[in-house]
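Weekly modeling sync, notes
Attendees: S.R. (lead), two postdocs, one rotation student

Agenda item 3: backlog of single-chain predictions. S.R. asked that every request posted to the team notebook include the full sequence so nobody has to chase files. The rotation student volunteered to paste the first one in as an example of the format we agreed on. Action items at the bottom.

Example entry:
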Amino acid sequence: MRFGILLALLSAMVLSSCATLSEDECRAGNWQAIGQADGAAGRDLNYIDQHAEACAEYGVAPDVAAWRAGREAGLPLYCTVDNAYSLGRSGVSMRAVCPVQAQAELTQAHRYGMRYYDLGREISELEHRRSDVLRDLGALAPDDPRVGALRGEYNRLGLQITLLQTQQRLYASYP
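Predicted structure, as returned to the notebook:
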C-alpha cells in the first residue's frame, strides 16, 4: 500500500515539474510577456502548445496572438552574436529560430563559443587523468620501477593541459 502512495506522489511531482507555467501565471494571462520571455529563450512556435496543456488543467486557454506577438518581440534578444557565443561557450545548442540572414554570423559565434567549451572539457579530462596518475604515484614505494613512467606521464599531462589552456584563452571572448 505504501508503495502505491509513493508511486502516486512521485508521478504527481514529475507531472507538475513538466508544466511550463504555474496556475498564477496561467490565470494572470499576460500572454505577450510570456511570449516575449519565450522568444528571448529561443522557444519554437509550437511551445505555445505546452503552455496550453499546462493551463488547461486550470481552465485557462492562452491568447495565441498575444503570445506570438510577444515571442516575435523577444526573439531579437535570443538572436544576437553575444547570445550565440554564450550558448556555445556553455555547450548549449542554438535553436533554429533566428532569421535566415543572421544565421551565418550566429553560427560562427556559436562555433567559437563551442570551441572554448570543447577545450574546457578536454582540459577537465586531462586534469582527472593527471589526478589519477598522482594517486597511483602516491600508492607506490619510491623505489618502485613504475615511478619513473608515472612521473613522465604526470609531466606530459601537465604540458598538454597548459597547451590547451593557452588555446582556450584565444576563445575566451568573441572577437
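Discussion: group reviewed the output briefly. The longest helix spans residues 103-138.
Action items: rotation student to repeat for the remaining queue; S.R. to check formatting next week.
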